[in-house]
Amino acid sequence: MRSYLDFEKSVAELEAKVEELRAVGERDGGISINDELTRLETKAGKALADLYATLTPWQKTLVARHQDRPHFRNYIERLITDFTPVAGDRKFGEDEAIVAGFGRLYGRPVCVMGQEKGSDTQGRLRHNFGMARPEGYRKAVRAMELADRFGLPVISLVDTAGAFPGVDAEERGQAEAIARSTDACLGLGVPNVAVIVGEGGSGGAVAIATCNRVLMLEHSIYTVASPEASASILWRDSKRREDAAVAMKITAQDLLRFGIIDQIVSEPVGGAHRAPQETMDAAGRAISDAIAGFDGLSANAIRDARAKKFLNMGRKA
User: Which of 22, 165, 200, 306 is within CB 3.0–4.6 Å of 222 for a Cys-Cys bond?
Assistant: First the structure.
């Protein structure tokens, strides 16, 4: 059963009528309802397209957080063959909020990492809702160092509200772990490509997204803090989250205009959760093309291109 967001109420009503009419047609085969069914389907499709063509930043935030959007494990199952995960940071333990490993993207050996939020209650608890502790970022560094040693491109699939803010994470050096992961991204002599597939929240995202190429799905968000947290900080009122979402310029369209990201990957009408396989295939092609753009470049050229990209952010032409 499809899950609708609050602002999709009008579309939900139309699609419910479509399903009711289709059920009537299947039950009473003698009644011709094709014309009415086609009319309703067209109306519902147009309503959905019109709605998603004019989403506000807050509505995009809700879409980015939709429970049915494809998660890291879905991308691995769809795009990566022979995936072999690594576990542990060799210092403290295993953190399942970040999954990292090695496999093949369209036959090319790659290193893949990203946050897994989990798809049900048990999975969300196991993966801590995609919010990593220090050992998660240290595992990411370990995977990046292995990829650099063997000349493998690194792919980061980002979907997190942020790094875990718990006391235990701070006691084990959360800020230092994030900084070292960011530094590892910058120091790679192989190309790295990040795709913001849902939420890209704060340092928890940047730690694995400081890449040669940063892509975003059309209805994903990338921000220094969640709209709710920003509203609490700026106005001491989390209910002003919609104002914060607009002010912070967190959408893919705004960030492409400012030069923070490099490319937007289109989503099907109605968002990635309506056609997950189509979305993942589009992301896979975009990642493959981005990696191919660095074929033949030396390690120093790849590092220099990455450094130049980030140093130029915010500078006037």
Answer: 200
Tell whether the model's pLDDT for residue 30 goes beyond 60.
no
Instruction: Report the predicted TM-score, pTM, of the whole model to 2 decimal places.
Output: 0.91
For 97, the domain range is: 61-311
pLDDT band per the 50, 70, 90 thresholds, residue 289: very high
Both 16 and 119 in one domain: the answer is no
State whether 150 and 271 are in the same domain.
yes
Total tally of structural domains belonging to the chain: 2
- pLDDT digit string (tens) for 49-102? 999 999 999 999 999 999 999 999 999 999 999 999 999 999 999 999 999 999
CATH number reported for the structural domain that contains residue 146 in this entry: 3.90.226.10
Instruction: Examine residue 1 and state whether it is found in any structural domain, yes or no.
Output: no
Average pLDDT over residues 131-143: 96
SS3 sequence, the chain? CCCCCHHHHHHHHHHHHHHHHHHHHHHCCCCCCHHHHHHHHHHHHHHHHHHHHCCCHHHHHHHHCCCCCCCHHHHHHHHEEEEEEECCCCCCCCCCCEEEEEEEECCEEEEEEEECCCCCHHHHHHCHHHCCCHHHHHHHHHHHHHHHHHCCCEEEEEEECCCCCCHHHHHCCHHHHHHHHHHHHHHCCCCEEEEEEEEEEHHHHHHHHCCCEEEEECCCEEECCCHHHHHHHHHCCHHHHHHHHHHHCCEHHHHHHCCCCCEEECCCCCCHHHCHHHHHHHHHHHHHHHHHCCCCCCHHHHHHHHHHHHHCCCCCC
In a domain, residue 316? The reply is no
